[in-house]
Amino acid sequence: MTKLIVKGGVPLKGTVKISGAKNSSLPIIAASLLSDGINIIEDVPDLEDVKVMCDVLEALGASIEKDKGTLKINSKNISEHEAPYDLVRKMRASFLVMGPLLARRGKAKISMPGGCAIGTRPIDLHLKGFSALGAEIIFGHGYIEASAPKLKGAKIYLDFPSVGATENILMAASLAEGKTVIENAAEEPEIVDLANCLNAMGAKIRGAGTDIIKVEGVKELRNVCHSVIPDRIEAGTFMVAAAITQGDVFIENVLPDHIKPVSAKLKEAGVFVREEQKGVHVRADDRPKSVDIKTLPYPGFPTDLQAPMMALMTLAEGTSVIIETVFENRFMHVDELKRMGANIKIQGRTAVVEGKPYLSGAPVKATDLRAGAALVLAGLAAEGITYVDNVYHIDRGYERFEEKLNSLGADITRAD
Ligand code: EPZ
């Protein structure tokens, strides 16, 4: 398996540019199925997950031209309504094609997305929304089939503000007959980005970014040219990288509002954080102070940055309590951090981290993309060398991760 070999002890210094958001790109690529024109999407990061989503669309009959960060997606000839099992198995987000297929073709057949390292990750809220819009849902042989000659607007309450369910329902409702109201909707910036893209395609969506989103269905959607927002999770990861190595880094292409929870927590930990027009400046001259963290749906502290922040807290002065409220099993990185000398105790969804003055490099394994990133950050601060295995997890969500870190002075090599 490919490994990253991380030499510790080097403070990161310099400027790094953040890529376009993975979690915006994936739903916006899926949304291209809603128009029969050519959609141009810019600032798309070069990631494994983006490749898989493009493969799904091509399997459905779309044609896609890639030119660096720009995708030209032609969904004129969508001939299929079934997303291939082997692709959906690779990436849960493939399920985001169900809403657009239902709206565009009146039917969709997608294999049940498996769970993954961070939990079972059901899709009941997606299906609740599609049923409310009039779709008939059938389960069989590991597949879910949904059909609806014509979707009709409805009022839908989400038991949990699920990001994926909000996105899937939003895309389906855009072409439904009449009004749809999504209550207790997810408020993440990626929802706003998707809604902005859909509105540019002719949809009538109001309230994205709040917990109540209203959609007035339209007959058809036209093609669009849309640039995705910067990746707030990659930005937060590099902010923690600057803090954990006691470095001095300017992180470009960041929307300050999107990283407020991370900036606030790092400031609380005694890290210097200054939000500027073009990005954010992060500097640390000493070990961080311990802070407590509770992950919540946006605008709370993002679950995707729980692992990187835990890596930082293993070196803090004091004890921090970290509560993961979004996923039921997102502490897979704890055992790996303990191999590096971290002192962490888990009770259910709560981790108690006793900060220590140093970590020691060790062979560790990435278990999901954010856990993998956290282990690299820990390796950057540890004494000695850390070998991070299963790097494919990291490549799913971070574009040129070690290249960007090395441009800031890190010493990371990739080895098979
Ligand atoms: C999105 O996943 C992101 N992925 C995740 O990022 C992120 O961690 C998550 O939102 C939360 O912010 C993409 O956008 C591609 P959810 P998603 O539906 O949509 C439960 C990363 O690292 N739930 O908001 O799958 C679910 O079990 C990835 O980039 C239901 O119960 O997340 C979980 O406990 C990891 N029923 C909680 O909601 C449903 O029908 C949050 O899930 C759907 C979800």
- Order of strands across the widest beta sheet? 22-23-1-24
Separation of the first and last Cα atoms:
6 Å
Helix content: 25-40%
Mean pLDDT: 96
Number of strands: 24
What overall geometry do the principal axes of the alpha carbons give?
elongated
Approximate strand percentage:
25-35%
Number of helices: 14
Poorly predicted runs are none
Which small molecules are bound?
ligand EPZ
State the major sheet: 4 strands, mixed
Rg, alpha carbons = 21 Å
| Strand-pairing-aware structural class | alpha/beta
What labels would you give this structure?
14 helices; 26% strand; single chain; 24 strands; 416 residues; binds ligand EPZ; alpha/beta; 4-stranded mixed β-sheet
Overview of the structural elements:
By secondary structure, this protein is of the alpha/beta class. The chain has 14 helices and 24 strands. The chain has helices at 22-31, 48-59, 85-90, 98-105, 124-132, 163-174, 189-200, 232-244, 260-268, 306-313, 333-339, 369-381, 392-397, 401-407; strands at residues 3-7, 13-17, 38-42, 63-67, 70-74, 82-83, 107-111, 136-140, 143-147, 155-157, 179-183, 204-206, 212-216, 225-227, 248-252, 272-275, 279-283, 293-295, 319-324, 343-347, 350-354, 363-365, 385-389, 411-415. The strands form 6 sheets. Strands 22-23-1-24 form a 4-stranded mixed sheet, covered by helices on one side. It has a 4-stranded mixed sheet with strand order 2-15-17-16. A 4-stranded mixed sheet has the order 4-5-3-14, with helices on one face. α6 links the parallel β10 and β11. α1 packs parallel to α2, α1 packs parallel to α7 and α4 packs parallel to α6 (163-174). The termini are close together. The structure holds ligand EPZ. Ligand EPZ binds next to α1, α5, α6 and α12.
